[in-house]
Design a protein that fits this description.
It is a single chain. The chain has 18 helices and 13 strands. By secondary structure, the protein is α+β, with helices and mostly antiparallel strands. Among the domains are: 125 residues, no CATH class; 122 residues, no CATH class; 68 residues, no CATH class.
Length: 553
């Protein structure tokens, strides 16, 4: 019988417990606590309290493996370390080259970006399909919208359990179907087709004939409207289009959101393990796309109700394939327009942070290391607590005079969406006093509002106050006006070093100059290294090579 081999014998140096004896509490009286003052070979000194103490190489290997590869070392890795006084540099380099490290880097950045988009609603039920069970037990796809079902069939009901050709033998797939009068309703039958979320090799599905219409145009009253654009649900002659491409399903929405999150993470891969400069994380105009996202942009996003996510394709986006395949999950590089700026204009970041203020605030936290704090003393002089201009409102202005110009840098992207809006007309006179949903989404419609008829992003872009002038300048400069100075000044590098230090050390760096263990010099050196090399792997290697990391606390 095969028996498991016993674990190898690992020789260990004796452990030494560091006790916090009374003299340790005399640190504030001038006794040294600096790491540099500690000689590990010297006998314990009761007058000195050390924050760090050397650890055995096996303990360090375990820590490195857990931190960089999210796993405990294999027994073979322990065996290779036997007899060595420290973890070799080659071992650290090997840990930095693994697939596990790539996955760790993704998790680290997801935590920073709050990149989960599972709760984003891409559309309402107006152009969404779900299934119903027919009398015979089969599943049939039908519109999820009660109003649209009534428009098709007079009543809120579903099609009959029979082929549409049983009702109309001359029926051609995609045409306006004839229906049978059943009580007050006029009921169609079902058809079979391959929907866009299936490959050609997969089975067909049953779809109610009204939903399977493929006409390019329909009537809304007496107005002719396109069937492949939002508002098509107002026409009984508009269906879900060829292969149902103009309608969402719950599954297709989930598939798109999963792809959106992966799109963000592929950008992270490029700058962490792909060799691209780390700072291009927030500046690059290159991105990634696949058939799923191109299909969404071309066919589904334009159908979204304007109360939901706005993600329409723009001239500033990368060109779309003429006939994208929704089931094609192959990722390819795309070249976006100059309006784009790394992950800051990717779908995931823009959809996760629905307002420009939220986008700017998260940028400030991640890449500038700054948080807004309410003032300790309120300045209520020369202000109006109800001023519609939040940069002039009492209390609010303390933060918003800083935040609003930063937010203006993101204003080329739609609120509650990821589509660029810089191609929209700056002024629409017809929107003044209008209740039109498009006007209300993008323009100031109130006649007594600030700049009625103008795009909301331009409401306070003028020279009336220094803050307004700053808003105007940030709009004109776009995101490069925000990202370039942050990178050039070293703020980006320092902020990311502090994030990484905090992660690996389990605590923020000590930056108080009066603290005897102050670590400002280490942060300065690491920040300069990242600024010079622009290399993510290199800065991680540097941090885990520090004594502060390699010794126990």
């Amino acid at each position: 019988m095969n028996r498991p081999h016993p674990p190898p014998v690992i020789l260990r140096r004796p452990w030494r417990l560091i006790g916090l004896a009374a003299p340790c509490f005399a640190a504030g009286l001038g006794l040294s606590t600096a790491l540099a003052d500690h000689d590990p070979s010297a006998p314990p000194d009761a007058s000195t309290c050390h924050l760090y103490d050397p650890v055995e190489p096996e303990v360090l290997l375990r820590r490195l493996s857990l931190d960089l590869n999210m796993r405990a070392p294999a027994i073979e890795e322990y065996e290779a370390l036997a007899g060595q006084a420290d973890v070799p540099e080659a071992t650290v380099n090997a840990l930095l080259q693994t697939e596990d490290f790539r996955q760790w880097a993704r998790r680290f950045h997801m935590d920073l970006f709050w990149g989960n988009v599972d709760n984003v609603a891409l559309n309402s039920g107006n152009v969404k399909l779900n299934t119903a069970t027919l009398a015979g037990g089969d599943q049939v796809w039908k519109t999820a919208s009660s109003g649209r079902r009534k428009k098709y069939r007079v009543e809120d009901t579903v099609c009959q359990d029979k082929p549409q050709t049983d009702i109309d033998k001359d029926y051609v797939l995609g045409e306006v179907p004839e229906c049978e009068q059943v009580g007050d309703a006029c009921l169609d039958g079902w058809v079979e087709l391959v929907p866009y979320w299936h490959t050609a090799a997969q089975d067909t599905v049953k779809v109610c004939a009204f939903e399977a219409q493929t006409a390019a145009e329909g009537l809304d009253g007496t107005d002719l409207i396109p069937c492949n654009y939002r508002g098509a649900n107002a026409s009984a002659e508009c269906g879900c289009g060829p292969d149902l491409r103009w309608c969402y399903t719950g599954n297709s929405e989930d598939t798109i959101l999963t792809a959106i999150q992966e799109q963000l993470l592929l950008n992270v891969d490029q700058v962490t393990v792909g060799g691209a400069p780390y700072s291009s994380l927030i500046t690059s105009t290159t991105g990634f796309t696949n058939g799923t996202l191109q299909f969404w942009k071309k066919h589904l996003a334009p159908m979204a109700n304007l109360t939901k996510a706005y993600a329409d394709w723009s001239d500033g986006d990368a060109p779309l394939a003429s006939d994208p395949i929704a089931t094609d999950t192959t990722w390819v590089v795309e070249q976006r327009g100059p309006q784009h700026s790394g992950i800051l204009t990717e779908n995931a970041y823009s959809l996760r942070f629905a307002t420009n203020r939220a986008r700017a605030n998260r940028f400030r936290i991640i890449f500038e290391g700054q948080y807004f704090q309410p003032p300790s003393i309120e300045d209520a002089s020369d202000c109006d607590p109800a001023d519609p201009d939040i940069t002039e409102r009492c209390t609010c202005r303390q933060c918003h005079q800083v935040l609003e110009p930063l937010a203006a840098s993101f204003s080329q992207t739609a609120l509650a969406g990821s589509g660029l809006i810089d191609s929209l007309p700056e002024y629409e006179e017809d929107c003044i006093g209008s209740n039109n949903i498009a006007c209300r989404r993008f323009y100031e419609t109130k006649e007594d509002g600030a700049k009625p008829g103008w795009l909301r992003r331009l409401q306070y872009a003028d020279d009336e106050t220094p803050t307004h002038a700053a808003i105007k300048a940030h709009i004109e400069a776009g995101l490069p006006g925000l990202t370039d100075p942050v990178i050039a000044s070293g703020t980006f590098a320092r902020s990311m070093v502090i994030h990484l230090w905090t992660h690996f050390m389990g605590r923020p760096p000590i930056l108080d100059p009066l603290d005897p263990n102050v670590e400002t010099a280490q942060i300065d050196a690491l920040s300069q290294q990242l600024r010079d090399d622009n290399d993510f792997r290199g800065i991680v290697r540097a941090i885990v090579s520090l004594d502060e990391y390699r010794r126990s606390r």
